[in-house]
Amino acid sequence: MTRCDDAPHPRPLKDADLSSVVGLCFDVDDTLTTAGRIGLEAWRALWKAHEAGLALVAVTGRPAGWCDLMCRQWPIDGVVGENGAFYFAWDPVRRRVLRRWAQDAATRARGRARLERIREEVLRSVPGARVASDQAYRAADLAIDWAEDTGPLSEAAVQRIVEIFRRHGATARVSS
Question: Is 79:135 a contact under the CB 8 Å cutoff?
Answer without folding.
Answer: no
